[in-house]
Amino acid sequence: xxxxxxxxxxxxxxxxxxxxxxxxxxxxxxxxxxxxxxxxxxxxxxxxxxxxxxxxxxxxxxxxxxxxxxxxxxxxxxxxxxxxxxxxxxxxxxxxxxxxxxxxxxxxxxxxxxxxxxxxxxxx
Length: 124
Hints:
Layout: E1 2-7, E2 9-12, E3 17-24, E4 28-38, E5 45-50, E6 56-58, E7 66-71, E8 76-81, E9 90-100, E10 109-114, E11 118-123
Parallel strand pairs: 2-11
Antiparallel strand pairs: 1-3, 3-8, 4-5, 4-9, 5-6, 7-8, 9-10, 9-11
């Protein structure tokens, strides 16, 4: 399974950006999907997560400003980011918990899959 992310860019504080990510491959299913971010000299942190059933989790720092959604049919996730702040500046990474299906279910395996990072820069 591969994740392809798009979106990001440069925006002024208070502006909006949207990130999207889709999974591709063969004989797979996607469980949780999420967005993480990593600012320079910081550890990677979870921004928002959405389960296959649609339950969501947000980091406190983005609650009320970011919205995560997914399309199970397209194996995709979108992060809508509003009222962006300079502290949101980071490289954003798409994540998926994927199950690779074998011909026999007993050989199915779960994998953590990461997309390439996409830069989000918020100027003050």
